[in-house]
Amino acid sequence: QQVSTDMKTLTKQIGRFAENKKLEIETLKIRENYRKEFIGNVSHELKTPLFTVQGYILTLLDGAMKDKSVRKKYLKRANKGVERLIYIVKDLDMISKLEVGGLQLQKERFNIIKLIQNVFDLLEMKAAKKKINLIFDIDYKSTGPIEVYADQERIQQVVTNLIVNSIKYGKNNGSIEVSVEDLIKNKVIVRVTDNGEGIEAQHINRVFERFYRVDKSGSRKEGGSGLGLSIVKHILEAHSEKIYVESQYGVGSEFSFTMEKAK
Ligand code: ADP
């Protein structure tokens, strides 16, 4: 009797062990595929600007160097390519830090109104190039500060990425509205609304994926690495906050996120 009970327990244990191993192998396989896909995406993203830079250098070596004005023009273009490479590498660096959880948040109390105003000032020129109006939905001078508790530098990146996207995918002469509103339970919600090209329903849940871009060729013309929204999502997740998107194709998009109010 005792032997058969022991055998049963042992068989159960072996079964459980095998099940666990199977799960482990599945997880490893998923991770391995993820890694392969990531490397594929990275090399693809780096290839275009690298070939552009090489193209200008080769043309210069081939004789274009002699002409002073051509030389300057090509060097400037090559530099643009290098700038783009730096931009992509910086984004990659950020994403890898965020994904391995190696990014320590430096939470502090700050005025979100001031931060948004600061981002507006930094992006004013970029918006003006497309005659896009940046509108702050609240009269920040009379409202007074809205204090939140978060990592200021990272939240500045979130706001910047969202507004940069609204400019990139915005229409000429369009507008971008940013608002900050009180929510229940000590939270505020920041909304970035544009009247740009909008996102088709089948793409909407995928825009936060790494390297995901709705229109591959079109977006590339606009620059960017396809990592902007993925970085935004990671930063907010690290804060245990959420990002929401609503969009209507051809009409515009609204990205919003929550933040903890300072006590
Ligand atoms: P990138 O802008 O570098 O391509 P993102 O991760 O920031 O990468 O965005 C992913 C994709 O989501 C973009 O390529 C674009 O297709 C879409 N998208 C993001 N923001 C907007 C927006 N405000 N309006 C329309 N499409 C957007």
UniProtKB/TrEMBL annotation:
<keyword id="KW-0418">Kinase</keyword>
<dbReference type="GO" id="GO:0016036">
    <property type="term" value="P:cellular response to phosphate starvation"/>
</dbReference>
<keyword id="KW-0808">Transferase</keyword>
<keyword id="KW-0902">Two-component regulatory system</keyword>
<keyword id="KW-0812">Transmembrane</keyword>
<dbReference type="GO" id="GO:0000155">
    <property type="term" value="F:phosphorelay sensor kinase activity"/>
</dbReference>
<dbReference type="GO" id="GO:0004721">
    <property type="term" value="F:phosphoprotein phosphatase activity"/>
</dbReference>
<keyword id="KW-0597">Phosphoprotein</keyword>
<protein>
    <recommendedName>
        <fullName>histidine kinase</fullName>
        <ecNumber>2.7.13.3</ecNumber>
    </recommendedName>
</protein>
<feature type="domain" description="Histidine kinase">
    <location>
        <begin position="41"/>
        <end position="263"/>
    </location>
</feature>
<dbReference type="GO" id="GO:0005886">
    <property type="term" value="C:plasma membrane"/>
</dbReference>
<keyword id="KW-0472">Membrane</keyword>
<keyword id="KW-1133">Transmembrane helix</keyword>
